[in-house]
Amino acid sequence: MYQTTKATDESTKIELGGVYKHLMTGVSHMLPLVVAGGLCIALSFVFGIEAFKEEGTLAAALMQIGGKSAFALMVPVLAGFIAFSIADRPGLAPGLIGGFIAASSGAGFIGGIIAGFIAGYSARFVVQKVVLPQSMEALKPILIVPLISSLFTGLMLIYLVAGPVAQTMTMLTDFLSGMTSANAVLLGLILGAMQCFDLGGPVNKAAYTFGVGLLASQSYLPMAAIMAAGMVPALGMGLATYLSKNKFTKTEQEAGKASFLLGLCFISEGAIPFAAKDPMRVIPSTIAGGALAGALSMFFGCTLMAPHGGLFVLAIPNAVGNVGLYILSIIAGTIVTGVMYAFLKQGQSAVEAEVEQA
Questions:
Q1: 115 in helix, strand or coil?
Q2: Could you tell me if 73 and 147 lie in one domain?
């Protein structure tokens, strides 16, 4: 009995790990489209917020590249590579088709994620369960699997999934658009804390994917809060190594400088070396600073139209709304993280320091 239960638990853990792996495969293939498309859209705003509406202009061309091409591919690629991760090449076609249906029906990135898993698992089921004569086996990967799994995925999306998910996305967008200051601050605090909790892990990626998905709905407040918070951990570690030099080795001080530069680029993973050595002090410090940065960004009504780039997107006119207050949010979060970690580091005992260095 015990062995059966243990085996079941292990199987559940493996499957959950597999689900996360499949999702991250889709996200990692989608991100280049998001970043390239988002920056092209932001560059179009250099010529004015509505300059892209003038046909034949460079602003219109940039918007076509970013908004009408890269962003149009975002959800299909997400779904396609989730399915590819589950079922290998047979899952790619139904995943792309399901993702396109999700995008065109308004179901957005949530619909794309669902489409990817439906396509992947249905394709894998057909591969494993459908047995053909040897003479017809060659038709299986190019005809049988794509046809059956694409039909199943498409019909599921059209008749069961797309409608309710599209309604949910519309409600979410309307809710974000009509948020009061108090609600906005709470959302910013939560997203900021998530962004700084595991520094590039699943919680961080969930918050980032949420913000990216809302960009396609012209909801720019959450993305600003997420990127402001995402810069804080690495910036804060750099500040802490400067404030408490006596508590850090020369190597750690150099790592702090590198971390600060990575933070400016919105690469929160710069704080990972510090979190790996001292998680009980680093993680609470990064969460506190990130939550503050996210909350302040939402409170000030800061907007961000590019999904990456850190402070360097400030060089693009109109890409960031309320620039001064946005920078203030990042500075405030960085100070909280840096000072908090420096203070906690000062309270470190000699024995703890020896263990950490070992």
A1: helix
A2: yes
Contacts 24+ apart (CB under 8 A), 157-163: 157/98, 157/101, 157/102, 157/105, 157/107, 157/111, 157/114, 157/115, 157/118, 158/101, 158/105, 161/102, 161/107, 161/111, 161/114, 161/115, 161/118, 162/101, 162/102, 162/105, 162/106, 162/107, 162/111, 163/105
Contact between 340 and 248 (Cβ < 8 Å): no
**Would you say residue 76 has pLDDT above 90?**
yes
Q: Tens digit of pLDDT for each residue in 113-137? A: 899 999 999 999 999 888 888 877 7
How many Å apart are CA 279 and CA 352, to the nearest integer?
13
Does residue 333 contact residue 234 with C-beta atoms inside 8 Å?
no
CA 11 to chain centroid, in Å, comes to 27
Regarding whether 200 and 263 lie in a shared domain, the answer is yes
- Statement: the pTM of the whole predicted model exceeds 0.70: no
Query: Does the CA dihedral 278-279-280-286 come out positive or negative?
Result: positive
DSSP 3-state of 9: helix
Q: What is the pLDDT of residue 173?
A: 63
143 & 211 share domain: no
Residues 121 and 210 both lie in one domain: no
What average pLDDT does the segment 178-205 reach?
A: 78
Is 211 in the same domain as 98?
no
Distance CA 193, CA 182 (A): 17
Same domain, 127 and 99: yes
Give the range of the structural domain holding residue 224, as residue numbers without chain letter: 181-357
209 & 97 share domain: no
* Whether residue 145 sits in one domain with residue 167: yes
